[in-house]
């Protein structure tokens, strides 16, 4: 029996929803983003902006991709070297870790308005923003870590570094996903990374309790 125009329009209208739903990944059981377990990300959509997600297909592979990326030479070159004027990357590069960097990255993925937020909305979930104080603590840690010792030596006066810190601080106040309050039920960095950095702004390299725990879980 021929398909009527009404039926054809209905079929066409539901195709994007079906395809869209297939790319929504619930972060239940995530070790990297435990404070975001009830929310979704659109892995396929986010790959266009985050090449490191290319092999992420489920929560374990997402956790592995995220933690490997933030401890990678590529991340060091893109962020610490290009934006914070730290030393040129080497083959055996030790990647510094700013307090709550993983939590901030989790937030940026979950709060992505183009891809991930529609996934959560589709499942009647509205992810709260990151607490503003957590975002500020991250920038404070960036400031201290990029101005003390290896691999960021004597770079405090660089224009690029100062601009990056200014931009990061501005994001904490202006981007809705990063400037949450307790009244909004905002997500605290200490909830997502309870053991990371032991409450210190100077975290050193990422090979700490958080990463040791991740390796044990794999």
TrEMBL record:
Keywords annotated in UniProt: Signal
Top-rank taxon: Eukaryota
Endpoints of the signal sequence: 1-21
Protein name: FZ domain-containing protein
Organism from which the protein derives: Jimgerdemannia flammicorona
């Amino acid at each position: 029996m021929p398909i009527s125009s009404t039926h054809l329009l209905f079929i066409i209208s539901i195709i994007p929803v079906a395809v869209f739903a297939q790319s929504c990944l619930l972060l239940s059981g995530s070790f990297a983003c435990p404070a975001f377990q009830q929310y979704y990300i659109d892995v396929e959509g986010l790959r266009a902006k985050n090449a490191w997600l290319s092999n992420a297909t489920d929560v374990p592979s997402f956790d592995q991709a995220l933690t490997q990326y933030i401890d990678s030479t590529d991340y060091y070159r893109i962020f610490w070297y290009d934006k914070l004027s730290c030393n040129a990357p080497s083959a055996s590069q030790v990647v510094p870790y700013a307090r709550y960097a993983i939590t901030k990255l989790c937030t940026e993925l979950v709060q992505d308005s183009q891809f991930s937020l529609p996934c959560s909305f589709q499942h009647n979930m509205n992810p709260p923003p990151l607490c503003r104080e957590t975002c500020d603590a991250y920038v404070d840690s960036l400031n201290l870590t990029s101005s003390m010792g290896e691999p960021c030596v004597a770079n405090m006066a660089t224009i690029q570094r100062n601009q990056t810190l200014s931009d990061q601080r501005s994001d904490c106040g202006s981007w809705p996903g990063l400037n949450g309050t307790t009244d909004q039920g905002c997500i605290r960095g200490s909830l997502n990374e309870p053991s990371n950095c032991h409450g210190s702004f100077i975290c050193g390299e990422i090979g700490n309790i958080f990463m040791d725990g991740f390796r044990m879980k794999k």
